[in-house]
Design brief:
This protein is α/β, with parallel strands linked by helices. The chain has 14 helices and 12 strands. Helix 4 (87-96) crosses helix 9. It binds pyridoxal-5'-phosphate. Residues 86-88, 112, 159, 184, 186, 206, 208-209, 218, 220, 337 line the site of pyridoxal-5'-phosphate.
């Protein structure tokens, strides 16, 4: 598949090829039907010869969902895509399609928590073992490989501490031992990173975040070569049944139309806020792959075409004071998830995998507001919280 440039993505998302069934409707209709009827028994039987190439039942193929899958595959540079009810449905499908009893998985320890639970806990019941390794070192992945390793599961950049791993090195290692690679590419979106280019086998995204982009829909997608996607469609897609509905697909398509413009805005705003935080008294260190101070900034420039606006910072301030600050912020809501129009904040403790040190980490999602307003809000609120803390001590 040829990879599109950012400018080509803009045009491809704003322009559709139609067939006559749409009567010139500018957006694809919501095919709100569970089944597709046939005129003759011959046509009916013919459709079953290639179930996924035909429209029989919406737990297999639905035209609205297929239309979205086509657009996502085009952006990612993949031969095929399948959309699921959530990011986790997509991730579980991709993992289950890659291993069987007796296999071993190497997974980066900074991967999304529930995905780690699927591999580290749930799959044990089926005789699959998982080793978790430091997610910023290729050597750690290499050392964990066993003769029965059949899957290397990656997330880069990760979504708490924003560490990267060399995708090409991991893909080459996997190819050499007959294992498969899956990457969670949610942070970068298909606009800013295309892991298939580096030889990764399957790319998964939580559509819920930037792709849907409006905090109003849940979804997930798996993308890759047809050879891998076909068995996944027949087994994990159709048998688990965690499909995306036509209605959700239409909502996601509406968000997808503006994905590049939102990502460019988020990139600029995120970097502006991150740069400001680096100069702030209450910040120890900012974790953003786009900053020259990020230890893997050179690798980031090699693998990523841009930076999204989810990042974190470490603070030496008391955690209760940081929580008071987060509570008083006017333009940031306290919430999980990210990728919508609205800025978000969470405060937590994170263990540094290399040093074992426990750090207080504030994760920020920068939405579509004015970055200057966001900076002013953070600065003024910090002054207020710091002033009342010094009064407490008197
Ligand atoms: C949210 C998220 C997921 C899970 O997606 P859901 O749509 O919530 O199931 C997976 N990976 C990352 C990095 C996420 O942020």
């Amino acid at each position: 598949m040829t990879k599109l440039t950012l400018e080509q993505m803009y045009t491809a998302l704003a322009h559709d090829e139609f067939d006559e069934r749409h009567y010139g409707a500018i957006q694809i209709p919501v095919y709100q039907n569970s089944l597709f009827a046939f005129d003759t028994y011959q046509q009916f039987e013919h459709a079953f010869e290639e179930m996924l190439g035909n429209h029989i039942y919406s737990r297999g193929n639905n035209p609205t969902v297929e239309f979205l899958e086509g657009k996502l595959a085009m952006l990612e540079g993949a031969e095929a895509a399948r959309c699921f009810a959530s990011g986790m449905a997509a991730i579980s499908a991709a993992i289950f399609s890659s291993v069987r009893a007796g296999d071993h998985i190497v997974c980066v320890s900074n991967a999304y928590g529930p995905a780690k639970q699927v591999m580290g806990e749930y799959l044990k019941r089926f005789g699959v073992e998982t080793s978790f390794v430091e997610g910023s070192r290729f050597e750690a992945v290499q050392e964990a490989v066993r003769p029965n390793t059949k899957l290397i599961y990656l997330e880069s950049p990760s979504s708490q501490m924003f560490e990267l791993i060399d995708l090409k090195q991991c893909a080459d290692l996997a190819k050499g031992i007959g294992a498969r690679t899956i990457i969670d590419n949610t942070w970068a979106t298909p606009i800013f990173q295309n892991p298939l280019e580096f030889g990764i086998d399957l790319v998964v995204h939580s559509i819920t975040k930037y792709i849907a982009g409006h905090s109003d829909a849940l979804g997930g997608v798996v993308m890759g070569a047809s050879e891998l996607m076909k068995p996944l469609s027949y087994d994990e897609y159709m048998l688990f049944g965690g499909i995306m509905t036509a209605h959700t697909a239409a909502m996601v398509l509406r968000g997808l139309r503006t994905l590049p413009v939102r990502m460019e805005r988020c990139q600029a705003s995120g970097l502006k806020v991150a740069n400001w935080l680096e100069t702030s008294s209450f910040v120890e260190r900012v974790y953003h792959p786009g900053l020259p101070s990020h230890p893997q900034h050179e690798l980031a420039k090699k693998q990523l075409k841009g930076y999204s606006s989810l990042f974190s910072f470490e603070s030496k301030q008391p955690i209760e004071r940081l929580k008071a600050w987060a509570s008083k912020l006017k333009l940031f809501k306290i919430a999980v998830s990210w990728g919508g129009y609205e800025s978000l904040v969470t405060v937590g403790r994170n263990t540094d995998v290399s040093s074992g040190e426990v750090k207080t980490v504030v994760r920020l999602y920068i939405g579509l507001e004015s970055p200057d307003d966001l900076i002013r809000d953070m600065q003024e609120t910090w002054q207020e919280v710091a002033a009342s803390a010094s009064l407490d001590r008197v």
